[in-house]
Amino acid sequence: MLTRSLQSVLLAASLGLVAVPAPAQIHVDLPGVEIRIGHSAPPPMRRESRARRPGADYVWLGGGWDWEGNDWVWVPGRWERPAYNKAKWVAPRYQREGEVWRVEPGHWSGQRVVEGEDYRRWYSEHGGRDKKDKKDKKDKKGHGHDQDKRNDHDSR
Asked: Do 95 and 79 touch, CB atoms closer than 8 A?
C-alpha cells in the first residue's frame, strides 16, 4: 500500500514537472520617451545622497534636469528595478543645437525614443540647426584667427 501511494506521488510529481512551461522571454511594452527642446542651458547637476538600496535587484537611477513648460525641473534620483532582464539605464542627455538645447530624458535601454512635438516643430523651422550657427560657421570657414596671425607674421 505504501509502495502504491509512493508511486502515485512520484507519478504526480513527474507529471507536474513536465507540465510546467520553460521560462519564456517576457516582452515589456514601455512607453516612448520624447525628445524635447529646452530654451536655456540646463543648470548644473545636483549632488544626491542615495537612500539605502531596497533590494539586490534594484539599480540607482541618477537624477537629472527635465524641461517642463518653460523651465527646468529637477527629477530626483531613485532606486528602481530594471524594466526587463538586462535593461540598462540611459542617463538624461542635453545637447546644444544652436540657440536651444535638445533634451533626451533618462530611460531604459530598450525604450523607444521619439521626437516630441516641440522638437519636430523646431527642427522643421530651423533645418536641424539654428540659422545663426550656419552663418557663423560659413563666415569662419577658412578665416580662423590663428591662420590670420600666421599670415601676418609670414608677410613681415
From this structure: no
Residues of the chain with pLDDT under 50: 2, 6, 9-27, 131-132, 135-136, 138-156
Q: How far is residue 123's CA from residue 130's CA, in Å, rounded to a whole number?
A: 9
Helix, strand, coil in percent for the chain, rounding step 5: 30, 25, 45
Distance in angstroms (rounded) separating the CA atoms of residues 101 and 110: 24
pLDDT tens digits, 48-73: 999 999 999 999 999 999 999 899 99
Q: What is the pLDDT, as a whole number, of residue 28?
A: 56
CB within 8 Å of 113: residues ≥ 6 apart:
32, 33, 34, 35, 104, 107
Bridge partner list, 94: 103
Cα–Cα distance between 106 and 30 in angstroms, integer? 13
Cell numbers linked to 36: 524635447
Q: Show the CA angle centred on residue 108, arms to residues 103 and 109, nearest 5°.
A: 95
Q: Are 96 and 65 spatial neighbours (Cβ–Cβ below 8 Å)?
A: no
- Beta-carbon neighbour count of residue 33 at 10 Å? 18
**Contact by Cβ (8 Å): 94, 65:** yes
CA-closest candidate to residue 60, choices 74, 79, 47, 75:
79
